[in-house]
Amino acid sequence: SGLVVPSVSYELHKKLLSVAEKHGLTLERRLEMTGVCASQMALTLLGGPNRLNPKNVHQRPTVALLCGPHVKGAQGISCGRHLANHDVQVILFLPNFVKMLESITNELSLFSKTQGQQVSSLKGEHCGRAGLRPPPSLVVWWCHPVVA
C-alpha cells in the first residue's frame, strides 16, 4: 500500500530505554503504561462504551492474548489485566516454561486476581470447540520480542 510507518532503529530504541531507566522510568512503570495504553486501544477496537454497556451483557467481548516468556509477553499480561478490569472476558495463553522472567511472574500474580482465564494449551473448551465458547472478538499477539 506504500504506507510508511515511522520508527527508530533497534540500537536507538535500546539507548532510549537505557536513558529512560536512568531517569526513573523503570521496567515496571513501562509495563503498566504499555498495558494501560494497549488495553485502551483494544477497548476502542471492541466498540468502546457501546459494547461494554451493562445493557449489552450478551455482547460481552472476548479477547485472546497470546504471550511469550519475555518482556513483550509481560506487556501482554498487563494489557489482559486491564481488559479484565473493564469486564472484558480475557483468555491469556502463556506456554509453560521452566524459567520465567520476574516481570512475567509479577504480572501473572496480578492477572490471577482478575476474572481472566490463563491457559497453557490451545486444546480444550477455551478454543471454541463444540460451540462451548464463541470465537474471540480480538486476538492480540505478544509472542515475539523485537529483534534487530
In short:
By secondary structure, the chain is α/β, with parallel strands linked by helices. The protein has helices at residues 10-22, 27-45, 48-51, 71-85, 102-111; strands spanning 62-67, 89-93, 117-119, 138-142.
CATH class division: Alpha Beta
Spans of at least 5 consecutive residues with low confidence: none
- Biggest sheet architecture: 4 strands, parallel
Radius of gyration from CA coordinates? 17 Å
The total of beta strands comes to: 4
SS element count, helices:
5
Determine the fraction of residues in helical runs and give it as a percent range: 40-55%
Termini gap: 24 Å
Instruction: Examine the secondary-structure arrangement and name the CATH architecture.
Output: 3-Layer(aba) Sandwich
Shape estimate? globular
Order of helices and strands: HHHEHEHEE
Q: At the third CATH level, what is the topology name?
A: Rossmann fold
> Structural class, judged by helices and strands?
alpha/beta
**CATH 4th-level superfamily:** YjeF N-terminal domain
Mean pLDDT: 86
Overall tally of structural domains: 1
Can you list the strand order of the major beta sheet?
3-2-1-4
- In terms of DSSP E residues, the strand content is 5-15%
Could you please describe the fold and organization of this structure?
One of its GO terms (cellular component) is P-body. GO terms for molecular function: mRNA binding. This is Enhancer of mRNA-decapping protein 3. InterPro entries: YjeF_N_dom (IPR004443), YjeF_N_dom_sf (IPR036652). Residues 9-148 form the YjeF N-terminal domain. α2 (27-45) packs across α4 (71-85). The chain has a four-stranded parallel β-sheet, covered by helices on one side. It has five helices and four strands, in the order αααβαβαββ. The model has no long low-confidence stretch (mean pLDDT 86). The chain is globular and about 45 Å long. β2 (89-93), α5 (102-111) and β3 form a beta-alpha-beta unit. It has a single domain (10-142), classed as Rossmann fold (3-Layer(aba) Sandwich). The protein is an alpha/beta fold. The longest helix is centred in the N-terminal third of the chain and has 19 residues, at 27-45.
